[in-house]
Amino acid sequence: MPEMNGTPLMFEPYRMRGLALVNRVVVSPMDMYSAVDGCPTDWHVVHYGTRAMGGAGYVVAEGTGVSEAGRITPGCAGLYRDDQVAAWRRVTDFVHEHTQAKIGIQICHSGRRGSTKRMFDGQDDPLPEGNWGIIAPSAIPYGADSQVPTQMDRALMDEVHEDFRQAALNAVVAGFNAIEYHCAHGYLLSNFISPVGNQRNDEYGGELSGRLRYPLEVFDSIRADVPDDFPIGVRISASDLVEGGNTDDDAVEISRAFKEHGADYVAASSGGAAKWAPVARPAPLGYVPFARRIKHEAGITAICVGNINTVDEVNGILEREDADLVALGRQVLRDPYWTLHAAQQLEHQPFEMWPIQYTTVPRQDRIWRKGKLAAGG
After folding, report:
1. Which of 80, 142, 187, 214 is the catalytic position?
2. Does pTM surpass 0.85?
3. Looking at residue 315, what is its pLDDT?
């Protein structure tokens, strides 16, 4: 594979504003549905800590509610109370103390996909009891068996706007290095952007410029309030994958708009506009063309996602300049140390990248470390 200064491309550093990443490998945000009253637990410390120790340059924590009603399920994490901020701080402190990874958090409002069972109990299925009211740009249920959401009026829009702004400030206090602003998969902001979920006839509906208005207004407040050197990325559904929905042409325009408002990257996923159009597992590299168009036509840092599993796939994406950073999901669930194993496969610092605790093995009066035997202690 091509190398820069003798370093494989996937291990080249990358910078966004004041954030320096040691390599181009990203752990994609994946909901764990394991929070208690919105607070991350020991599970999250172990889960994110392990993946950060696994060598990725950038770990993005799961979609996290900006309010109690903005959670997807009762098991989803939040970032709207002080105890949640403190609980997340345990995660970020571990990552910063013990790894080279940087960690961001995806902030989200569930919109019409809220008040549902945890994914492993029945994805997008209504709760049998304890449901809370849900909101959306238009009063259109996510699926035939879903709650009908309340259409947001000005007061609700202002309330959610403030929830996002405060969650972003809380992310900084919690020790995160970046924010990913969730505008994908049929959640609230995605609903505004997609014509599948937004059928308003005011200035926040209609053409794409109108549908983008509210997500951009909220984004502007976040960008203005967090430090200038603090990156904010955006995850979008680059295609709704359904007739009448947004397409990859729209994704380029959406990405250009966010770039103009100060976004630092776009992560290009797809689907999720409605229950009958779920986020499907694509064929290998199936979403990469979306990232390629965003990178080259919108001129913004692009993260590609979607069934990317092998070293050759990651290398190929970077070699072809299809994306700037490559996110893995299921593969790093199966192998938290995927990046370290990739370094060994490519013979790039095959031992140096591992935690010192894993490469120091006492053998009588000798220590084995970083692949070498050394006398003494």
Report:
1. 187
2. yes
3. 94
